[in-house]
Amino acid sequence: MTDLFEQFYSGQGTDDRGRRIEEIWAWEDAQLESVHDYVQWLFPSRRPSQFNPDAPVLTEEVIAAFRADPQLRERLLKSFERMLRFYGFETVEDEDGLAIKRASNWRERFGNWVSPGNHNHLRITRILACLRALGLARYARAFLEALEAVRKEFPAAISGRTAEFWRSAGG
């Protein structure tokens, strides 16, 4: 494995600030909210980040590696589940399939991101696109469904344009 992002994700390397993925997973919600350069490492995109120029960019080789390696996808899922807790959601799998539902911490968490122009809306777009690109599209679709329900309930807090970005990224 030569790609720095794959090394970071496999637990064999660090991000550009020397942090291991396990450290980021263990952060408190306040740290996830206040630090702005980790999300590009947990959920990279195909385009360079304007906020973190040292963050990885998804290449066809990295995408293929994640799609071929269930351990990398499992670790990506762990990152996703950490961010779901941050937003007040959880995954539920039952006989009806996969769903993203509001978690017990929903009331305490939704105020951090359900507001007009919130920077977490961009993070969510990034998460949806990354999940889809790296082989977890069903999780992206389930998250999108949960987000659509939130937008329906709080239409003034999440713009139509944001919802379009989310649909494009996660659909």
Global Rg: 15 Å
Compute the number of structural domains.
Answer: 1
- How many β-strands, per DSSP? 2
Low-confidence runs of at least 5 consecutive residues: none
What is the strand arrangement across the widest sheet? 1-2
Percent helix: 55-70%
Mean pLDDT: 94
Shape: globular
- Element-by-element helix/strand order: HHHHHHEEHHHH
Count of discrete alpha- or pi-helical segments spanning 4 or more residues: 10
Helix/strand/pairing category: mainly alpha
End-to-end span in angstroms? 30 Å
For the largest beta-sheet, the strand count, sense and barrel status come to: 2 strands, antiparallel
Strand fraction band? 5-15%
Topology:
Elements: H1 4-10, H2 21-25, H3 29-34, H4 39-42, H5 60-68, H6 70-87, E1 89-94, E2 97-102, H7 106-109, H8 119-133, H9 137-153, H10 160-170
Antiparallel strand pairs: 1-2
Q: Can you offer a commentary on this structure?
A:
- With 171 residues, the protein is mainly α.
- It has one domain (4-170).
- It has 10 helices and 2 strands; from the N terminus they run ααααααββαααα.
- The chain has helices spanning 4-10, 21-25, 29-34, 39-42, 60-68, 70-87, 106-109, 119-133, 137-153, 160-170, and strands spanning 89-94, 97-102.
- Strands 1-2 form a two-stranded antiparallel ribbon.
- Helix 8 (119-133) runs antiparallel to helix 9 (137-153).
- The longest helix is centred in the middle third of the chain and has 18 residues, at 70-87.
- It is globular and about 40 Å long.
- The mean pLDDT is 94.
